[in-house]
Write a structure and sequence with these properties.
Elements: H1 2-39, H2 43-56, H3 62-74, H4 81-91, H5 101-111, H6 117-128, H7 133-144, H8 155-170, H9 183-191, E1 196-200, H10 206-216, H11 228-232, E2 245-250, E3 261-267, E4 273-276, H12 296-307, H13 315-326, H14 333-336, H15 338-354, H16 362-366, E5 372-380, E6 386-394, H17 397-407, H18 416-426, E7 430-439, E8 445-451, E9 466-473, E10 480-489, E11 507-516, E12 529-530, E13 534-537, E14 552-553, E15 558-560, E16 565-572, E17 582-594, E18 600-615, E19 620-626, E20 634-644, E21 650-660, H19 662-673
Parallel strand pairs: 15-21
Antiparallel strand pairs: 1-2, 2-3, 3-4, 5-6, 6-9, 7-8, 7-10, 10-11, 12-16, 13-14, 13-16, 16-19, 17-18, 17-20, 20-21
Helix pairs in contact: 1-2, 1-3, 2-3, 3-4, 3-8, 5-6, 8-9
């Protein structure tokens, strides 16, 4: 019996290996045919052949899918981006590892530069253990970083392959894995195209030393730490040359003042390329004397950083070294030596590289930004679950102006008359879309929702926002909310400013804001609860009603002078009497903030009241209009207390707001929200 069992097992293994071999043979045939068609210039036929493989093969082939992606990216075939993404997902949908083992191994290595270490290690482990979950893990990796909220395809995936293609074509000094390029190819795929590329000639001769002394003006500062004789003590009988250096600069951080990230690559004498951490790494350690504050190494450092001082990221280093030489204080060798500057530069550069984003998209950053402002108010929905009324303020007008400038001949953004003339016939092509993605704390997608707000392009006040309102459910502690804004131009004959991007052709503006989902108040049976207060104005103007509330919500708590104030509040879990009615009262009053640091205030005479309510439910909602037209410009605080007359419970809510002159209201409120 045991022999029969072994025989059956071997037979099954033979059959399976035969199926795998047949699959691989079919895959090779499709790939060879596709590559022959590519060499002949028949790219569309090559793609058709690969698509035919998808409909013919019994097992999804990642190798075929990756070849389709490579062709699409290499030849910039934007019309095929959606299919390339679909093919990629198909290639990652097999049930077994064996048919795709080699392709998976290669793909993992290609992903290593943009994946964190733990993710890369997990993929390697899955592959070694023949764990088919590796397919879904790689799919999830790309789904989680797809910044296109519609999800029709993944522009970041296409951009990844376009970077690989550029690296293979451009950085050919070496053939290093995983892309067969020199080390620059690895970093190009990792970070994309630098915002600036700087060549540095490292040759130093006596003229450079003389110019350095003149720039430091040492002779005019006899009280300084160093004299020209300090420089002249070094004899440069021959030039010093460490080879040409290429410096790549990337934006790092959110503000212009953040230090950019720099990568340094040196051409070696044999023609290969090596990476160095900082310029100072070129200088041999023997050039840095431990007993001299102006060593040969420090002189070379100063020459290099003087050459680079016109670039913002290098100027502070050179100035620091120069100021150190001017000092009249006694020199501390350990603090003022070139070696100390080298160590400081290395530490700072390594820290920036350590915090560099793994998945930054240069294409995404090339699209005109749409500023978004989010304001959330805590409420409880009809099913007694915590939720947030969420206002999304979009300001797409600059993106519209920029796109008009690209597509309408003789359009000038500064000419209001032309802006008015253009508006009726062309602006109707634009559409604004808001999206919301709810994600778990570790980034997994929970749900998506969409809204198409009315696109406001106001010539009189171009800061008025286009508004969307979402009711967002409370999901779990630490959950993430990501809001998107997309400006679309539906004119098929129009062209984006950058026609070589991986984004959809009709996308002309993009905005993204991620906020954490804050904790809500506890919902315990019998506890009186009151929502956050939503302040606004223009309650009776139905033409301006937006969202679920019949007034204009002031999401930055700034209100125009002379307008009645509207306060929206909701009360939950009220006590009910024997007849099923709730009874409660609302006390409100205003105080004007004044005095040092706004610590003192005074109640506004006549603007306070107590209102009694009787209602046939334990829930109550009201948009209360208060005649506050007597309030002048200034900062105020509204205090409201809700008291349940049946249970005796009470809840207090306060909200600060600012009254502005009506002529300044929209402009200032826009600046605050932005």
């Amino acid at each position: 019996m045991r022999k029969i069992t072994i025989t059956l097992f071997l037979l099954l293994c033979f059959c399976f290996s035969g199926q795998v071999y047949a699959q691989q043979s079919d895959v090779s045939e499709f790939l060879d045919q596709s590559r022959s068609q590519e060499e002949a210039g028949n790219i569309e036929n090559a793609l058709d052949t690969l698509f035919e493989a998808r409909t013919t093969l019994s097992t999804p082939s990642l190798e075929v899918a990756l070849e389709y992606m490579r062709l699409t990216a290499n030849h910039d075939l934007s019309d095929h981006y959606r299919m390339a993404y679909a093919m990629y997902l198909w290639g990652l949908s097999a049930d077994e590892i064996s048919p795709n083992r080699d392709a998976l191994e290669a793909e993992i290595e290609r992903l290593q530069p943009i994946a964190d270490t733990s993710q890369y290690t997990a993929w390697k482990k899955m592959l070694k253990e023949d764990n088919p979950e590796i397919y879904s893990s790689i799919r999830s990796f790309w789904n989680d970083i797809n910044y296109l909220p519609t999800g029709n395809y993944n522009p970041r995936l296409v951009e990844h392959w376009r970077r690989i293609d550029h690296a293979r074509e451009t950085y050919t000094a070496d053939e290093l894995p995983p892309y067969g390029t020199d080390i620059r190819g690895y970093y190009y795929v990792k970070y994309g195209k630098p915002i600036q590329e700087i060549p540095l000639d490292t040759e130093i001769n006596p003229t450079d030393i003389r110019e350095l002394g003149e720039s430091l003006n040492l002779d005019a500062r006899p009280e300084g730490r160093f004299r020209r004789s300090s420089l002249n003590s070094y004899s440069f009988n021959r030039s010093i040359d460490f080879g040409e250096v290429h410096i790549w600069i990337y934006k790092h951080g959110e503000t212009e003042s953040d230090t950019p990230m720099a990568l340094y690559f040196r051409e070696k004498q044999n023609g290969s390329i090596e990476q160095i951490t900082v310029i100072d790494d070129l200088i041999p350690s023997t050039y840095f004397s431990s007993t001299e504050t102006l060593s040969l190494g420090k002189i070379i450092q100063m020459v290099y950083y003087r050459r680079l001082a016109n670039y913002l990221e290098f100027a502070p280093i050179y100035n620091s070294m120069a100021l150190d030489n001017y000092s009249s204080e006694p020199a501390r060798v350990t603090m003022t030596s070139g070696l100390n500057f080298k160590l400081r530069n290395r530490a700072k550069t390594k820290n920036i590289l350590k915090n560099a984003p793994l998945l930054a998209s240069t294409d995404r950053n090339a699209v005109m930004e749409i500023p978004i402002d989010i304001r959330q108010y805590r409420v409880i929905d009809e099913e007694n679950r915590p939720a947030y009324i969420t206002y999304v303020n979009n300001r797409p007008i600059e993106a519209v102006r920029f796109d008009l400038f690209q597509n309408i001949e003789n359009f000038q953004q500064s000419e209001d008359s032309l802006w008015l003339e253009v508006r009726p016939d062309y602006l109707k092509n634009y559409k604004l879309r808001n999206s919301l993605h709810l994600r778990t704390p570790d980034g997994k997608l929970i749900s998506k929702s969409y809204n198409n707000p009315f696109l406001i392009l106001d010539e009189q006040d171009d800061t008025t926002p286009s508004l969307s309102v979402f009711e967002v459910p409370y999901v779990e502690k630490g959950a993430k909310q990501i809001f998107y804004a997309e400006l679309l131009n539906r004119d098929n004959d129009s062209n984006p400013a950058f026609d070589d991007l991986t984004l959809p052709k009709n996308l002309r503006g993009f905005g993204e804001v991620e906020i954490p989902q804050k904790d809500h108040f506890d919902i315990e049976p019998g506890n009186l609860l009151v929502s956050d207060l939503i302040l606004g104005f223009n309650k009776e103007n139905e033409l301006l009603e937006t969202g679920p509330l019949p007034f204009i919500a002031s999401t930055n708590d700034t209100l125009p002078e002379g307008e009645p104030l509207v306060v929206h509040f909701e009360v939950y879990q009220l006590g009910l009497n024997d007849e099923g009615f709730s009874r409660f009262e609302v006390d409100y009053s205003f105080s004007k903030e004044r005095g040092i640091f706004n610590l003192f205030g005074r109640t506004i005479d006549g603007i306070s009241s107590t209102i009694e309510f009787e209602h046939d439910s334990a829930r109550f909602s009201e948009s209360l209009e208060i005649d506050s037209r007597s309030l002048t410009e200034g900062e105020y605080k509204l205090e409201m207390t809700v008291t349940d007359k049946i249970t005796g419970q009470e809840v207090n809510r306060t909200e600060a707001f600012t009254i502005l002159d009506e002529s300044d209201f929209y402009l200032v409120s826009s600046q605050n929200e932005s």
